[in-house]
């Protein structure tokens, strides 16, 4: 399963760069049907990392399961607080995880103490989502919750 990594500095342009990165990789892997939802979910997770883990950079890891036509995106950051899922959130701010939950049909979660990630400080958390092949945690990584 190919994996791709993008280092994400805490800048205003980073969510757009991350979104374009994921879209480009998925198109190159012939997974164009996943691009729109994956790009939006990626943008939400990277935006959260930039907003809530101020002053620390994030790392995006994208795993593509070739035979399964599945994708898993994990964003690692230095904010140890888990994301909050707000039900039925209608506000412009604070609905990112709600969107991720809806678009992935609940296939998202966190990796507390994600020390195995390249880049973030030890003890950083990862927030992930999956799209594609059905079933929870199709691309489960060693040591992750899901």
Which spans have pLDDT < 50 for at least 5 consecutive residues? 140-146
Q: Supply the number of helical segments.
A: 3
What count of structural domains? 1
Distance between the termini: 19 Å
Query: Average pLDDT, to the nearest integer?
Result: 82
CATH topology: Heat Shock Protein 90
Q: What's the CATH architecture name?
A: 2-Layer Sandwich
Radius of gyration, taken over Cα atoms and rounded to an integer in Å: 14 Å
**Name of the CATH class:** Alpha Beta
Can you give the helix content as a percent range? 25-40%
Number of strands: 5
The dominant shape is globular
**Percentage of β-strand residues:** 15-25%
What is the name of the CATH superfamily?
Histidine kinase-like ATPase, C-terminal domain
Topology summary:
Blueprint: E1 3-8, H1 14-28, H2 35-52, E2 58-65, E3 70-77, H3 96-103, E4 108-111, E5 125-132
Antiparallel strand pairs: 1-2, 2-3, 3-5, 4-5
Helix pairs in contact: 1-2, 2-3
GO molecular function: ATP binding
Pfam families: HATPase_c_2
Domain Histidine kinase/HSP90-like ATPase: 13-104
């Amino acid at each position: 399963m190919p994996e791709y990594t993008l280092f994400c500095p805490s800048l205003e342009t980073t969510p757009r760069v991350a979104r374009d990165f994921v879209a480009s990789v998925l198109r190159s892997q012939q997974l164009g049907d996943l691009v729109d939802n994956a790009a939006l979910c990626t943008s939400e997770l990277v935006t959260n990392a930039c907003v809530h883990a101020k002053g620390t950079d994030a790392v995006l890891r994208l795993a593509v399961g070739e035979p399964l036509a599945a994708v898993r995106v994990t964003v690692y950051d230095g904010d140890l607080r888990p994301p909050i899922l707000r039900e039925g959130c209608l506000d412009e701010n604070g609905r990112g995880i709600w969107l991720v939950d809806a678009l992935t049909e609940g296939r998202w979660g966190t990796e507390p103490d994600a020390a195995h990630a390249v880049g973030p400080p030890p003890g950083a958390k990862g927030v992930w989502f999956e799209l594609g092949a059905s079933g929870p945690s199709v691309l489960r990584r060693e040591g992750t919750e899901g």
